[in-house]
Design a protein that fits this description.
The protein is an alpha/beta fold. It contains 19 helices and 9 strands.
């Protein structure tokens, strides 16, 4: 803002020029545009901006509000205990950590972890995004980094706190590997300034600063920032296991009226691979569906529909003709039949209701979370993928383009088998296998499972026809209904 004296001098100069007969309006117009640009444009770009850097004294999120992630929370609490009781740890010569990096897939709660850390340590919390530090103007990023650390210390002193946490989300934007940007060195200057600021964090300061950052692409970070003394600890915030999913579902349904048929244990089993954000969305979508249907309570049906919506999208208004409906029912019935044949009790539901890009789908619910697969399990996965096309070919006389995605999945599983040393090639290295050898080996695996699936469907054709017929009539079959239709199959398996 211009000082009053300078403004008065400017007005006096314009008045003098007007008395001398000079046309001052072009000059007034130019000065007005310059003042507007300076105040709203250039000043906003070259300064950090108070509106963009708001210090939250103590976030309301607590570690108890974060379901699952027991290992990550324990490791984080251990690291934060130094800030929590600096005097006791100082007697053992333990220095406070300067930085903690949270890594893991999107939606697993990394930002919530950082906020909970600030509450746990009674620290001022200042957050920023990595993209805020990189501009086209040279030196802006470095200046913003300096200002960030100054703001953190000032906010802590103002609030009478002994520590401050700076949280940088998506840090790979500003801390990527140096030397990759040839046009200018703004990225490198920004990273260099962050390294300098972290090196300057002293253990005897009045305000102890801790830098926390989150990324799902740790492989993009420069090695200089990952070394001890900067980011001293890397905490993995991974997808929750079954018990973790149960806890997260419990947290997000606390404020929702649940019907007596809702079983969160079943839901946690059917949501393998879901992140905390996915599970929160499932609970929210179930409540929206209940409101849409004017139901007073959330039922298990609402939750299962919400799981389908989160996975594939909303139901489409697309109306299938009778011939296409029979084909889709046969295709999905083939998937369900072979899945139940190989893994009894694995199918949660099968439907021919179009969602997203899928005309129908089979949702499976494994009994337990699996992180490793054997050769037999991988072959079973391939067989389930090939079953839809095989059912179309054997029942309707020819396959369709609907199996393209199934083939992609089956081919990828077979490739994984080859490079895991689980094929006829034995132990191999990816660079040592030619494309021709890889193709022939994968094709061999696929043909073996195709013949296996064909035999299964031919022997159980009567049950496939029943499943497809029921799908055409009611569009969706629950896993229990499916198994009631296939009850004789268990007798066949036991006598085989």
């Amino acid at each position: 803002m211009l000082k009053p004296a300078a403004m008065g001098a400017g007005v006096g100069l314009l008045a003098f020029l007007a008395l001398r007969g000079v046309d001052i309006w072009p000059l007034v117009f130019v000065l007005g545009i310059a003042l507007l640009f300076f105040r709203s444009g250039l000043a906003g770009r070259l300064n950090l901006g108070q509106a963009r850097r708001v210090a939250v004294a103590i976030p309301t999120v607590d570690f108890q509000d974060i379901g699952g992630q027991k290992t990550a929370k324990d490791e984080l609490c251990e690291a934060l205990s130094v800030l929590h009781d600096r005097q006791a740890y100082g007697q053992l010569g333990i220095r406070p950590l300067k930085g903690i990096l949270l890594t893991g897939p999107p939606g697993t709660g990394k930002t919530l972890m950082a906020k909970a850390a600030a509450r746990y340590t009674d620290s001022v919390f200042i957050s920023a995004a990595g993209s805020e530090f990189v501009e086209m103007y040279a030196g802006v990023g470095a200046q913003r980094v300096r200002q960030l650390f100054q703001d953190a210390r000032a906010a802590a002193k103002r609030d009478g706190r002994g520590s401050a946490i700076i949280f940088v989300d998506e840090i790979e934007v500003m801390a990527g590997k140096r030397g990759q940007h040839q046009s200018h060195l703004e990225y490198d200057q920004t990273l260099n300034q962050l390294l300098v600021e972290m090196d300057g964090i002293a253990t005897h300061e009045e305000v102890q600063v801790l830098v926390m950052a989150a990324t799902n692409r740790a492989d993009l970070l420069d090695q200089a920032i990952l070394r001890p003394g900067r980011f001293d600890r890397i905490v993995r915030v991974d997808l929750p296991d079954r018990e973790g999913r149960r806890q997260i579902l419990g947290l997000h349904t606390q404020n929702k009226p649940l019907a007596v048929d809702v079983d969160l244990d079943v839901l946690s089993r059917e949501t393998f691979g879901f992140s905390g954000a996915h599970l929160e969305s499932v609970c929210n979508e179930a409540a929206i569906l209940a409101l849409r249907n004017k139901d007073a309570h959330l039922t298990m049906g609402h939750f299962k529909s919400a799981v389908d919506k989160v996975m594939l999208g909303e139901k489409l208004d697309r109306q299938l003709g009778q011939e296409e409906m029979v084909r889709v029912a046969t295709h999905e019935g083939g998937h369900a039949l072979v899945s139940e044949w190989l893994r009894p009790g694995s199918v949660s539901s099968v439907t021919i209701v179009p969602r997203g890009m899928a005309l129908g789908f089979v949702r499976q619910a494994p009994e337990d979370d699996h992180y490793l697969e054997t050769v037999a399990e991988l072959k079973d996965d391939i067989a389930v993928c090939l079953a839809g096309s095989a059912a179309e070919r054997l029942v309707l006389g020819q396959a369709s383009t609907g199996a393209a995605n199934d083939f992609d999945k089956a081919w990828e599983i077979a490739r994984r088998m080859v490079f895991s040393g689980l094929s006829s090639l034995g132990i191999v290295h990816q660079e040592a296998v030619s494309s021709e050898v890889l193709y022939q080996t994968v094709k061999e695996i696929m043909e073996e499972q195709r013949a296996r699936v064909d035999d299964c469907i031919r022997q159980r054709r009567v049950w496939l026809d029943q499943i497809a017929g029921m799908l055409v009539q009611q569009e969706t079959l629950d896993g229990t209904e499916l198994r009631s239709l296939m009850a004789p199959i268990n007798d066949v398996i036991e006598s085989a």
